[in-house]
Amino acid sequence: MTDQVISVQGIKKRYGEHLVLDGLSFHVERGSIFALLGENGAGKTTMVRILATLIKANSGSAKIGGYDTDSESVSVKKLISLTGQYAAVDELLTGEENLQMIGRLNHLDHRTVKARTVELLEQFDLSGAAKKRVSTYSGGMRRRLDIAISLFANPEVIFLDEPTTGLDPRSRKNMWELIRKLANRGVTIFLTTQYLEEADQLADKIAVMNNGKIIETGTSEQLKSIIGKEKLELTFQDQASFDEASKVIKGQINESEKVISVETEGSTESLRRLLNTLHENQIEPVAMHFRKPTLDDVFLEITGKSTKGVSSND
Ligand SMILES: Nc1ncnc2c1ncn2[C@@H]1O[C@H](COP(=O)(O)OP(=O)(O)OP(=O)(O)O)[C@@H](O)[C@H]1O
């Protein structure tokens, strides 16, 4: 039996005339990484705020650890922690002081606060900067401190709202590593992101959101299989060889790039046949490469939109 730590059924949220969430339903398994993927304004933060008991839905139900986020919010709050757009970091304090303050706010005794602070600073690679004011920290260091703070009370579920937005590629990769480590320790991670690659890299399950609705759910591989199998892309040098090739091989044609994409069915036999056919007709491609479907392809397929809003990482 699966162990669902978050379960959401038919959530609707309206701001005035604007239906921001239009009947969202999904569940998240304990210890997994779940990604809510969507472009700016899709409603991701609104969903997180409902789960974190900060706002109420108009209808539907959301439960964490079996507790209702609306009627049992005190119990829900004990299980969760929230980071990201609500950063609780005090700029004027040092990293160490920030952690100690949170420990005291959680009514932990002096010794526990001290030990846990040292442990978290070490774990998040902040020991060297422990006595420096947060105002001197880089973006990546702040995010790490933010997450360290949110882990002080050992939550079961952690919400990471766009954890890498605005970070440089290196800090982003470090953050991914950290998120994986958290998941390995058994914490359930609810991630929102506008980066396809981030969801692809991290999530056990991805829900794609568009205009307040979840339009597709699955593992990264399941979503990619909507698009089909791996393809071999053959590029031809001139129009004549491209035209000849399009007569003898079956595939998806890209006229302007002079590229034909062929599904290879994953077998070397079909590949050999394809190359033989070209060879017998004295057609030689100038370039060949395999291309796996990406989440970009999936997004385009299911929303009919280009990935201008939802973007691949740089
Ligand atoms: N308090 C509010 N009052 C009115 N409209 C709101 C409020 N909060 C959010 N919205 C609207 O709801 C929509 C969804 O916002 P939300 O922040 O949930 O999107 P998002 O997917 O998290 O995007 P972003 O990455 O920009 O935060 C937006 O059109 C936003 O303007």
TrEMBL record:
SUPFAM superfamilies: P-loop containing nucleoside triphosphate hydrolases. It is found in: Cell membrane. GO terms for molecular function: ATP binding. Keywords: ATP-binding, Cell membrane, Membrane, Nucleotide-binding, Translocase, Transport. It comes from the Bacteria. Its main location: membrane. The keyword Translocase applies. Transmembrane segments: none annotated. Residues 6-236 form the ABC transporter domain. The keyword Cell membrane applies. It is a peripheral membrane protein. Belongs to the ABC transporter superfamily. Drug exporter-1 (DrugE1) (TC 3.A.1.105) family. This is ABC-2 type transport system ATP-binding protein.
